[in-house]
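re: ur question from earlier - yeah i can do the single chain one, its not a big deal. heres the input i used so u can compare w yours
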Amino acid sequence: MLFMEELAYWMFIQGKDRSHFNTLRDAIDRYFDKETKEILRLSIDNLDYQIRNCSFLSRDAQGYYAFAHRSFMEYFIARRLSREIPANDAQEIKINDEIALFVSELIDLSVYQRVEPPPGVKVPHNMVYIPPGQFIMGEKDDIRITRLDTGFFIDRYPVTNAQFCKFLNEQGNCDEGGVEWLDLKGKFQNERCHIQIKQGRFVVEPGFEEYPVIYVSWYGAKAYAEWAGKRLPTEQEWEKAARGIDGRVYPWGNGFEETLCNTEESKIGKTTPVNSYPSGISPYGCMDMAGNVWEWTDSWYDEDRTYKVLRGGSWFVLLVGARCSYRGRDYPDIRNFLIGFRCARDLK
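and the output i got, formated as tokens:
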């Protein structure tokens, strides 16, 4: 098996679907070090014999070897990566959907149970610790192994109406980026936002205290985070918090379940309290990272620096938008009924 992993990985890195025996023979000496050869009991003399007697590989009349099915090659690559990624020892390469799915099934889930902050560092209330290290990020033709150099904390839940009201009552609803932080103008906004001004103070409509705040601009989200001694997460941080290291499609795994999040498939048609889906928890313990409301991040969508990245989907989008890897976007001064946020914090 280890030989198959090494061979599959070498062919993948080289961009080859097949390789001639002579090329393989030369590559063995170049690619495998002495220790690996000894572990594999691999030698040039018995290479052809080993390959011919392996059901995973086939050889044509011209002496070219290929995996009998591409999924075999992807599986063996994933076996290797499922050991290397938790150990932060993987080469940071692009992979495909099939390899990522295999990795998500092969990684030992106990890696998440052993996650603890550095000695002497206490996890703040209602936040979770996300460790540094490698993980699978991205989707479609941009799936890659990447790395976070430092650990951080992130809110367990999106920021709620009650929390944002406390901020507004201390700081006011300031104008930034050409708009007020929170949009309360108009009947439609008031009906959906559930935050009102009464006797000069911001108050939450009774029963909606634990709903995610909406109609908040990126500037308002950033201002709240700074007031709370936090910051907005980057999209890289957000994605690792949502999917862990194994490249899973949704926070809970690879299969969509409408009972685990609030999306269009749920037919609820509005936001829900942030603690409504405990079984939809992410590997590190974050809630509501699929559906309910889009979440602002600190990252720009592209080099034009026009849009800010949104993550997580909402109650108004289908399951595709709720994928951990899906990238939404909007102008930072936009305030609507689909966008909220959560905060992050450095360890220091």
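The CA atoms of residues 181 and 220 lie 4 Å apart. not sure if urs matches, ping me
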